[in-house]
Design a protein that fits this description.
CATH class of the largest domain: Alpha Beta
CATH superfamily of the largest domain: Type I PLP-dependent aspartate aminotransferase-like (Major domain)
Number of strands: 17
Largest sheet: 7 strands, mixed
Radius of gyration: 23 Å
Bound molecules: ligand 7TS
CATH topology of the largest domain: Aspartate Aminotransferase, domain 2
Number of helices: 14
CATH architecture of the largest domain: 3-Layer(aba) Sandwich
Number of domains: 2
């Protein structure tokens, strides 16, 4: 007799159920049902996050780390719990390697400024890539200008993939840090970051990953990657705006000087000399964004409840379907055709300006982003001024892809 077949115990991913968690999705824009495809810019918030914010301000607010009273102790406990949640989310070794920042931008600026102050000197080199967001370009330009160091750039190929051999050639004993994105916000390319880190470490060069577009889509393990710095934003992963994470390896953070001065980050202060607090507080000057940190914790719990496995599998299916459907449109060209991609599609249609396409789609209730997506040098690399970008979250559906395709056909008819 045959063995009985194992019965699947895991419920299939139920997108309709998930959509019910996001009240904002259930509305009309220009009298059409909203189709929100601008998730790479910022994703929407589940009820659990909205409720956490309301609950905090209604019943729990007080400043953290300073009061002996009940509310302050409770707020401190909830706040510090989220540090633990963020630590587990990316599998950091220590909770004190998690620094709360305003977002990815501030996380990169913190490292560029503080690491740069200590470790970058005249004649040194900083290595970034051609597909970086401005927030992983400009902070390095500032430190290079300040120190007389040089910014070197890893090129990308026509598919929008980093050219690994070029990276190897650019690495040298002059390189002080490599800063690249984990996933490109414009192309969707998932970079071979583990390989990049391995190579850089052969030269004892630390690597910062801009993971703003990675954490919303995939499970990360900073210890497995052996990343030195890992930066991401809550608002792109279903949490509130104004909060982000800098993960840094203890050994680097210990050596780096403070980024900002003020309360919280000190041990003792006299007019003659100030000594600094331990990690992570050394890098968290001033009253932090308590409410949004706590609500960010709710977003992490929410992601946990769905599970990265389901998220990645569903978004892959959506990406494949959308790519196939979009390519059926005559004259549509996808910018960013890497083999390994997250659910982001940039495209151009005939010679029509992306802004005009975006405006017509908006009239149909479809939200996409148009323009250079804060990656101007990448646009120059492809000889274009911008693209239309549809970026998908796990609450998007194949039906919404069909609405997008219909909208694009209409735009084409009106604008050609
Ligand atoms: N790095 C990448 C790869 C990003 O995509 C973004 C934001 C940032 C850094 C900056 O993040 P922030 O939260 O500090 O602003 N990207 C986008 C985008 O693609 N469209 O709008 C913002």
């Amino acid at each position: 007799m045959n063995e009985p077949e194992a019965i699947a115990t895991i419920a299939p991913f139920d997108v309709q159920k998930v959509r019910n968690d996001f009240p904002i999705l259930n509305q009309k824009v220009h009298e059409q049902p909203l189709v929100y495809l601008d998730n790479a810019a910022s994703s929407q918030k589940p009820k659990a996050v909205i409720e956490a914010l309301e609950k905090y301000y209604t019943a729990q607010h007080s400043n953290v780390h300073r009061g002996v009273h009940y509310l302050s102790s409770r707020a401190t406990e909830s706040f510090e719990n989220v540090r633990g949640k963020a630590q587990r989310l990316i599998n950091a070794k220590h909770a004190h390697e998690i620094i709360f920042t305003r977002g990815t931008t501030e996380a990169v600026n913190l490292v560029a400024s503080s690491f740069g102050k200590k470790f970058i000197s005249e004649g040194d080199e900083v290595l970034i890539s051609e597909m970086e967001h401005h927030s992983n370009i400009v902070p390095w330009q500032i430190v290079c200008e300040d120190k007389g160091a040089k910014l070197k750039v890893i090129p990308v190929n026509d598919a929008g993939e980093l050219i690994f051999e070029a990276f190897e050639k650019l690495l040298s004993e002059k390189t002080k840090i490599v800063a690249v994105n984990h996933v490109s916000n414009t192309l969707g390319t998932i970079n071979p970051v583990k390989k990049i880190i391995e190579k850089a470490h052969e030269f004892n060069v630390p690597v910062l990953l801009d993971a703003a577009q990675a954490v919303p889509h995939m499970k990360t393990d900073v210890q497995d990657l052996n990343a030195d710095f890992y930066c991401f934003s809550s608002h792109k992963m279903y949490g509130p705006t104004g909060i982000g994470i800098l993960y840094g390896k203890e050994k680097w953070l210990e050596e780096m000087p403070p980024y900002q001065g003020g309360g919280e980050m000190i041990e003792t202060v006299t007019f003659e000399k100030t000594t600094y607090n331990d990690l992570p507080y050394k890098f968290e000057a001033g009253t932090p964004n308590i409410a949004d940190v706590i609500a960010f914790g709710a977003a992490i719990d929410y992601l946990d409840s769905i599970g990265y496995e389901d998220i990645s599998a569903y978004e892959k299916e959506l990406l494949e379907y959308a790519t196939e459907q979009l390519l059926n449109i005559n004259g549509l060209r996808i910018i960013g055709t890497a083999e390994n991609k997250a659910s982001v599609i940039s495209f151009l249609m005939d010679e029509i300006h992306p802004y005009d396409i975006g405006t017509i789609l908006d009239q149909l209730g479809i939200a996409v982003r148009t323009g250079h997506h804060c990656t101007e040098p990448l646009m120059n690399r492809f000889g274009i001024s911008g693209t239309v970008r549809a970026s998908f979250a796990f609450y998007n559906t194949k039906e919404e892809v069909d609405v997008l395709v219909k909208g694009l056909l209409k735009a084409k008819e009106m604008l050609s």
